[in-house]
Write a structure and sequence with these properties.
The protein has an 8-stranded mixed sheet, with helices on both faces. By secondary structure, it is of the alpha+beta class. The protein contains 4 helices and 8 strands.
Length: 179
């Protein structure tokens, strides 16, 4: 399903979506070590850069195995990696994928994630030939819900997910966009 000779970088007015590299470890550690970034997800906080490098390697190995597409979101003005965005949980037969995204708090509310999301949606539909993109977001994550709805996603379901490391239950809203 994923087919390319060189990784597809996507450039917009304010950001560059590009392949994650080990040289991004400090920016990614800053993001993955920030508890606010994990407020609405069940992902563990990285304790050190070794864990962040393991995450970077896992993302690139999955990319090489054509399991998913994942981009670093680089802010062009600062040349800093401020987030990531992905299409994963690919279902080839259904031509469906799931979006995942996050951006550091200092860059939230500036329209940068919408810029990234619209570009990745176009890539998913136009290049990957997906017919359906879905996104799961925690029901209290108002910013993410507003973002998805502004990009024409529609709520299709609600599910509960439990955290592996605690008793916490996440009430997820499932959104869908069809080509």
């Amino acid at each position: 399903m994923i087919s390319f000779i060189t990784f597809p970088s996507i450039e917009t007015k304010n950001i560059l979506l590009r392949k994650i590299d080990r040289s991004d470890v400090h920016d990614f550690f800053e993001m993955r070590n920030n508890r606010k970034m994990h407020e609405y997800t069940k992902t563990p906080v990285d304790k050190n850069t070794e864990e962040t490098n393991a995450f970077i390697d896992k993302m690139n190995n999955g990319l090489d195995a054509k399991k998913w597409m994942v981009w670093a979101i680089e802010h062009k003005q600062s040349n800093k990696v401020i987030g990531s965005i992905s299409i994963w949980n690919l279902e080839k037969e259904a031509k469906r994928g799931e979006l995942g995204y996050g951006i550091v708090p200092n860059y939230q509310g500036l329209g940068l994630m919408k810029e990234a999301l619209l570009s990745v949606i176009a890539y998913g539909f136009d290049v990957m030939k997906l017919k359906i993109l879905e996104a799961y977001t925690e029901e209290n994550n108002r910013s993410s819900i507003k973002l998805l709805e502004s990009c024409k996603f529609s709520e299709i379901d609600r599910v509960e997910e439990s955290e592996e490391f605690s008793d916490k239950v996440y009430r997820m809203v499932v959104y869908r966009l069809e080509c």
